[in-house]
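Record 1 of the preview.
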Amino acid sequence: MSEFVPLLNSVGLHINESKTEILIRPSDSSLTSLLIGGLNVRVVSTLRYLGTFLTADLKRCETIRTRCRQASSVVHMLTRFIREHTLPFTIVIQMYKQLVVPLMTYGLRAAVLTKANRLRLARYEKHFLIQLLKFSSNRPQRICVRRILNGKTINRKVTVYRTCYWGHVLRRSRSHLLNSAWRYTRHYRKVGRPIFTWHDSIERDIQNIPVPRDVLEMAAQSGKLTLKREVEKLYDSDRESSNETDDYFYDRDSN
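->
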């Protein structure tokens, strides 16, 4: 950094000290700031980058929690609009797909997702649909989340996105940064459950896809569109994962 700051100054750029933060792993609670290149940089325990939260203790729940909070505020505004105009059931579903789903899935292609993260996404999806469909017209009484979304639930869409990104990693050279992240392992274990890495998370996604792994690997090498066609077969699958065991709900107010 001592060389980086003069280089920036030589081309008329400078580091904004008030906006610059540094995250240290493993965390050190005694450090509140570091002097780098003459600048006093604040040390933080959480950084946000492109919608994903990076934490000093490697906790992942904040990313999912933030996605759900943002989507919840949008659902609240949409619910008022639907109540005022009594929109048809099909229109409400399209609004959910176009306005809520992108908020829930943003930044999750390369994030590490545990089972608890996936269950949280599934619960919020069910809750949002109940709220939005409550004031729509022509809604069925017994609703299956997977059926009304044509299999494209939050968790299945995330699985498709992440597996396609995995294909992108496979097409890179072994020395590429993404492949280094894919092969990353921890040399020590913290107290508690076994360490869960990005590699583990993607492997779980692949297991949920009704296509043999060797077929997926061949499709990945053939190109991203070929892999996408194979992975999207998940939308038509009737096989339930542990995140989809309770996706029915009843609308007691429907006619």
